[in-house]
Recover the amino acids of this structure.
């Protein structure tokens, strides 16, 4: 096994670069409700989706994430509701997020403008038995498995059209304390707390021919006191069945060429079923200690009650 202290140092370096307490997903264009509650019900049909991500394979303590979402429209598509369960494990930390989304939409310019809110409970766990302290007696260090239940809420705005979309969101508004205090003199929030994350996303469809469409997209991620992250994605859709694309992820420390180059393949089997896979090739210094990142995404939507539309939905 590689030197543990080297691995931990690189892991901390990489987390500082990505600056994300929230899980990062390469297939963000297929998993929008994880970032923006205003997306709930946007398919105009009940949809169930799941995504599995294992990051930096072969690196001890690297992130592993899973996300399950269900959302649907009600009240003649004016309202969308959703439920999400997210699991994220990084080193000794194990986090479960349970969220409910509500979105209200109005017709504007041939599309839908949605305003969404989200309520969330975070079950935050740390297994201190899997950690070796550098300094014994540290007041922030425990000797058992600790758990916290942390409430939060957020909001988002999303505009969806047949040929393009755009949205902004802040899924968590409260800067909750994430530490476990063992000394009354320790100020918890000086060490670890939830940070507000801002997300901005946009994408569009550009028809080239009857057989080919271009699908560029972008995701901007920002947290205070951290570098700005930007995912720039370019996709090509063949015969409305196969979506092939690549993403350049910008962010991290100066001097790096970027965080990663990511490759995405999505198969649109039917109007109801989509399956996507992704691979991230790391560009930062941590690339020598891991074997890349993998994602698998599946989405199943029931038939919409709307009639008269035969075009496949790409957003």
């Amino acid at each position: 096994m590689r030197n543990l202290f080297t691995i931990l140092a690189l892991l901390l370096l990489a987390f500082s670069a990505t600056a994300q307490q929230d899980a990062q997903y390469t297939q963000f264009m297929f998993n929008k409700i994880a970032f923006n509650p205003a997306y709930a019900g946007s398919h105009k049909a009940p949809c169930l989706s799941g995504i599995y991500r294992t990051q930096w394979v072969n690196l001890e303590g690297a992130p592993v994430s899973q996300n399950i979402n269900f959302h649907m429209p009600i009240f003649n598509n004016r309202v969308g509701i959703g439920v999400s369960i997210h699991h994220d494990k990084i080193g000794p930390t194990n986090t479960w997020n349970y969220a409910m989304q509500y979105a209200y939409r109005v017709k504007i310019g041939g599309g839908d403008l949605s305003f969404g809110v989200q309520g969330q409970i975070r079950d935050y766990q740390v297994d201190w038995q899997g950690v070796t302290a550098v300094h014994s007696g540290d007041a922030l260090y425990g000797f058992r498995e600790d758990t916290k239940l942390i409430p939060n809420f957020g909001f988002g705005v999303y505009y969806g059209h047949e040929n393009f979309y755009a949205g902004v969101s802040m899924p968590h508004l409260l800067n909750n304390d994430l530490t476990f205090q063992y000394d009354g003199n320790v100020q918890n929030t000086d060490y670890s707390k939830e940070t507000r994350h801002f997300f901005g996303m946009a994408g569009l469809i550009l028809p080239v021919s009857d057989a080919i469409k271009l699908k560029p997209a972008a995701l901007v991620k920002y947290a205070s006191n951290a570098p700005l992250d930007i995912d720039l994605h370019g996709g090509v859709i063949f015969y409305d069945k196969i979506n092939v694309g690549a993403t350049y992820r910008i962010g991290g420390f100066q001097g790096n060429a970027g965080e990663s180059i990511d490759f995405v393949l999505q198969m649109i089997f039917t109007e109801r079923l989509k399956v996507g896979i992704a691979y991230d090739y790391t560009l930062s210094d941590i690339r020598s200690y891991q074997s890349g990142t993998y994602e698998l995404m599946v989405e199943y939507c029931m038939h919409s009650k709307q009639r008269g539309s035969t075009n496949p939905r790409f957003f």
